Amino acid sequence: MAGAATFGVGSLIAGGLPAFAQAEQSTQPQPANLPLHRKIPGSEKSLPTIGLGSWITFNVGHDPVLLQNCTDVMAAFFAAGGQMIDSSPMYGSSQATIGHGLAALEVERSTVFAADKLWTSDETGGAAQIAETAQNWGLRQFDLLQVHNMLDWENQFPVLQGMKAQGALDYVGITTSHGRRHELMAVIMQREPLDFIQVTYNPLDRDVENRILPIAQDRNIAVIINRPFQGGQLTRALRNAPLPGIAQDYGAQSWAQLILKYIVSHPAVTCAIPATTRVDHVRENMAAISPISDEMNTRLPEGKERHAIANAIGDAL
Ligand SMILES: NC(=O)c1ccc[n+]([C@@H]2O[C@H](COP(=O)([O-])OP(=O)(O)OC[C@H]3O[C@@H](n4cnc5c(N)ncnc54)[C@H](OP(=O)(O)O)[C@@H]3O)[C@@H](O)[C@H]2O)c1
């Protein structure tokens, strides 16, 4: 496995407060509250089914207040048992924000599943970009590196494969979003030895159900889901709509939780990565996959039940 033992100095502080705040004040998840995990196909490792995105939300530059806020979000994420954080050289200062948070919280290397991306079409630029990315995070190596948006994938994917072969990387992947270039992704999935793909999937963007997710299951490829809330558009549109009765069947206390339960209940999905600037939202998102109390129904929907949830969300818009 990758990397150094801890990141920097400091302590794991649970910041922010209300709503979903009260259950998690300790620095580590309690065993009874461990979130739902799913195995990475073809690997002994499993991951919590909710991770943390960083596009836009963590691009806060050097502003100390905003940096502290992101650190608080990360603290709440780890305290709830979260592991995967996803970033990219495309996301402005987000990588450095993650590095700041990991150091401030003195997170143990084994606690975080570090997922980043290679985003270049420069034939010789990959190694330098990965080195800079690692420096921003403050770690020696990543768990997962993905070819961002499959950019120049014919040249960049072998760079990542080479790193994996040398033991400098655990997993390799490719990404897309917004339903783009699924045909190409399907071809690569059937041809190349991929560990992970990353795609957009939510109750309104379901194209991957037809071809991409079945191929992932068939080929033992782990699946990360980006844009679970359509960049926040979906949760904003539902904000004032009453939660449907079906939400109770799965212990969903908010639209966000119902959406996340819909997503992670697909058997091909390994991990969804909602991004947020808010401590209460990260707790709410992690609570969607965590047994908070004995009364809470944490059953996940299956088959027709999943369609009923998608329909209920469509009807509420
Ligand atoms: N091609 C690619 O590789 C690619 C493309 C797109 C995204 N990604 C990755 O996927 C991650 C997620 O996608 P995204 O950031 O585009 O969109 P997203 O996660 O669908 O939406 C983020 C928005 O959702 C809101 N939100 C989060 N939790 C909420 C909750 N519990 N209730 C209400 N609103 C909530 C956030 O607002 P608040 O701040 O107010 O909580 C934020 O504005 C990215 O950050 C990135 O890491 C990768």
What secondary-structure arrangement, pairings included, does this model have?
Blueprint: E1 37-39, E2 46-48, H1 64-79, E3 84-86, H2 94-105, E4 113-118, H3 126-137, E5 144-147, H4 153-165, E6 171-175, H5 182-191, E7 196-200, H6 212-218, E8 222-226, H7 233-238, H8 246-249, H9 255-264, E9 271-272, H10 279-287, H11 303-316
Parallel strand pairs: 3-4, 4-5, 5-6, 6-7, 7-8, 8-9
Antiparallel strand pairs: 1-2
Helix pairs in contact: 1-2, 1-10, 2-3, 9-11
Residues 53-55, 57, 86, 148-149, 175-177, 198, 226-232, 235, 256, 273-278, 281, 284-285 line the site of NADP nicotinamide-adenine-dinucleotide phosphate.
Domain NADP-dependent oxidoreductase: 50-300
Organism: Thalassospira marina
Protein name: Aldo/keto reductase
Q: What does this molecule look like?
A:
The protein has 317 residues and is α/β, with parallel strands linked by helices. The chain has one domain: TIM Barrel. The chain contains 11 helices and 9 strands. It has helices at 64-79, 94-105, 126-137, 153-165, 182-191, 212-218, 233-238, 246-249, 255-264, 279-287, 303-316; strands spanning 37-39, 46-48, 84-86, 113-118, 144-147, 171-175, 196-200, 222-226, 271-272. The strands form 2 sheets. It has a 7-stranded parallel beta sheet. It has a two-stranded antiparallel ribbon with strand order 1-2. Helix 2 packs parallel to helix 3. The longest helix is centred in the N-terminal third of the chain and has 16 residues, at 64-79. The protein is globular, with a radius of gyration of 19 Å. The structure holds NADP nicotinamide-adenine-dinucleotide phosphate. NADP nicotinamide-adenine-dinucleotide phosphate is lined by residues 53-55, 57, 86, 148-149, 175-177, 198, 226-232, 235, 256, 273-278, 281, 284-285. The site of NADP nicotinamide-adenine-dinucleotide phosphate has 29 residues, from helix 10.
